[in-house]
Task: inverse folding
């Protein structure tokens, strides 16, 4: 129940515009998420322009949007990642 409440809270409280988010080259973004947070891409996603990165060890997660110009932006971040959910279900909840 806790993950559902966490996701619901994120949906209703966090909506960040791209202008306010952190953007950089996609290669730099991926290296930063891996090196700083120990996050890796969550498998099982069909969306081509967004990717959830998460760390089972740290419990952090990041939703990244990939742009056609080779850059990417952080759309959402959070803690208490629960890898039990299907990545497409989580992505749908975050982007609705």
Result:
């Amino acid at each position: 129940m806790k993950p559902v409440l966490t996701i619901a809270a994120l949906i209703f409280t966090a909506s960040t515009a791209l202008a306010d988010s952190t953007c950089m080259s996609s290669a730099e973004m991926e290296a930063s998420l891996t090196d700083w947070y120990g996050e890796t891409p969550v498998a099982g996603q069909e969306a081509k322009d967004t990717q959830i990165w998460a760390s089972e060890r740290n419990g952090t997660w990041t939703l990244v949007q990939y742009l056609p110009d080779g850059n990417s932006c952080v759309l959402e971040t959070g803690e208490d990642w629960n890898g039990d959910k299907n990545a497409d279900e989580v992505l749908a909840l975050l982007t609705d």
In short: The mean pLDDT is 79. Residues 2-95 form one domain.
